[in-house]
Amino acid sequence: MAELTDRTASLWMDTTADAPIHPPLTADATVDVAVVGGGILGITTALLCAQAGASVAVLEMDVVAGGVTGHTTAKVTPLHGSSYSELRAKHDAQVARAYASGNLAAMERVARLVESLGIDADLRRRPAMTYVTDPDELTTIQREAEAAREAGLAVRLVTESELPYPIVAGVRIEEQVELNSRKYVLGLAEALVAAGGTIHEQTRATGLSERGGPRVHTAGGASVRANDVVVATLMPFLDRGLFFARLTPNRSYCIAARAPRIPEVMAISADQPTRSVRAALGRDGEELLIVGGEGHATGEEADTRRRYAALETFAREAFGATEITHHWSAHDLQPADGLPYIGRYTPFSRHVWTAAGFRKWGMTNATMAAEILSARIGDRDHPLASAFDSNRLDPVQAAPGVAKEIAKDARHFVVDHTVHRDGPTCTHLGCRLRWNTAEDSWDCPCHGSRFAADGAVLTGPATKPLDLG
Question: Which among 8, 58, 10, 104 has a CA at the least distance from the CA of 196?
Fold first, then answer.
């Protein structure tokens, strides 16, 4: 197994290491809209609300775009692997069209914001493609092409590509967007501050009370009272709405490399193992190869170094990669019925909102969610709000996913507590944590919480650190 490079920061984090610092919240505040989470969902929602005239405060437990947004592949396209054939297996054609139109509009919103705000985000227009290399999977791509066309995307079925290895077939769409995700969100954050919004980094939200009007409580003791609160924390961190039973946490991996063959297409395989590739600009403008994939359920693997080794092998064999410059991992959530949850936190929450379950395609899904949430906060209708309602009743479509997640959680809780295992328990609901050797973290196999070696919370829904004393 290859040794991991010391460059554990993502390419996006490395190229933005000199980002502005925002002070933590130290005193109580009152605003129109409080946003918990400073990733693409939180910052985009905050900016849209501020542009509509609201006073806005963002609370971020670490740094702006330092979570999943800073550790994605940063493809901006409505073509999401084999999503449309998967959606059509559970939903009618109207739902798939809503997903396509919302994500297509989100892609163009991103492009417009980059242009109108003058953000240097390394944006380039490139084709996107979902492909297979196994002849036995040809029908998979044919079904996806048919479903994507039915949903309204201008895709075509191809048998050749710019990739340096043969494909059996692919679904292709032109003029999509690739960029540096953290440069983009940092640009949005700058625009938010210019519009009068405030951002507080190193400020962990620990709770939310709703009686008498929403108030966000933080670990430092200060609180923010708001007319509306948006929980934009990947996994909604409040134990309300049972989101942890409706969302399955997964991890996936990325490397950046120097290579003589750099793809001019954003591509992802629909057959296994998943391989996601694109080009990106390094710190000095050098063209680099990005390869992603190797996903698995969070907390169910201890030695994840082999995941990086598999990506490195592929990069060397397929693209002639000569040096791995960065490696990083990401955390995302799969919704039980295949659709993101966007709307009120619970059916009884009049002024608390959330969005989650972006299927590993957060650049467009989160932007779409921000459009919907900002409209609803401003008492404006949005044509897609009902399709992605966070409190939708979908027992037929969601039941298998919910049952699978509950069974997994029960298995881990019972087995890990009856069979001796070393390690602490999660501060969320007490599941036994597992040490992740590649990431140096304690990971929860139940609901995806992650903790640093010193016990600090890296990823929710947990809000309390581990007691490792």
Answer: 58
